[in-house]
Amino acid sequence: AQSVTQLGSHVSVSEGALVLLRCNYSSSVPPYLFWYVQYPNQGLQLLLKYTSAATLVKGINGFEAEFKKSETSFHLTKPSAHMSDAAEYFCAVSISGGYNKLIFGAGTRLAVHP
Amino acid sequence: NAGVTQTPKFRVLKTGQSMTLLCAQDMNHEYMYWYRQDPGMGLRLIHYSVGEGTTAKGEVPDGYNVSRLKKQNFLLGLESAAPSQTSVYFCASSSAGTNPLQYFGAGTRLSVL
After folding, report:
1. Do A49 and B102 touch (CB under 8 A)?
2. Which residue in B102, B108, B109 has the most chain A C-beta atoms within 10 A of its own C-beta, making it the best mutation to test that interface?
3. Closest Cα to residue B29, out of B93, B102, B100, B103?
4. How confident is the model at residue B1, as a pLDDT?
């Protein structure tokens, strides 16, 4: 069975600092991996996705994630945090043939302070 | 460019009342999903549908029923609401095929008193 673990339910960084949000997955078959962002009182917006084409995936708003099979990780990074990055971030996994169902992590709330 | 539309946006119910949440998509997607979001638990799949007239259980189906009478609509019903069903509900849709994107609605915030 697939599962997703996000380490750290809350992360706080200073504006301009590196953002690192951690995601580890468990899957018996090659997974598809996603990062979504949720701003307060809004729905989910796709940041980026990994579908085996390239291990380093670039997304919107300057975010990127690297797929590391040996570590079963898909951590999200951004070199320089902006105040507008404050939101909740969800890592998710799905597998081919599973009707595209998503398994989500518990989420990480990112706070950015001046 | 409506995408996925959920109605209502907010609702307060008393224990034992029933209600139906409506999800409509205008992208001609085959697959539709209902999730619930609870603090510290991410989103969990309640039910999903892979085509008109077909539905299947997800991770947390108890207490909910669904119907997909038309391809563009996916209804989530609570026959007898319980406080444990207080949550934010999200609908999503995707096309069929190898792992296309899911598109999410804005959510329905439900409180059961």
Report:
1. no
2. B102
3. B93
4. 61
Q: What is the rounded distance in angstroms from the CA atom of residue B63 to the CA atom of residue B78? A: 6
Residues in chain A, overall count: 114
Please tell me the predicted confidence (pLDDT) of residue B44: 94
Distance CA A10, CA A100 (A): 28
**Closest Cβ–Cβ partner in A43, A49, A104 for B107:** A43
* Residue A41 DSSP SS3: coil
- Distance (Å, whole) CA B92 – CA B23: 8
Q: What are phi and psi of B84, to 5 degrees?
A: -65, -10
Which of A9, A90, A99 shows the shortest C-beta gap to B43?
A90
Q: Smallest Cα–Cα separation from B60: which of B80, B81, B77, B43?
A: B43
Please give the average per-residue pLDDT across B71-77, as a whole number.
97
CA distance B37 to chain A (A): 9
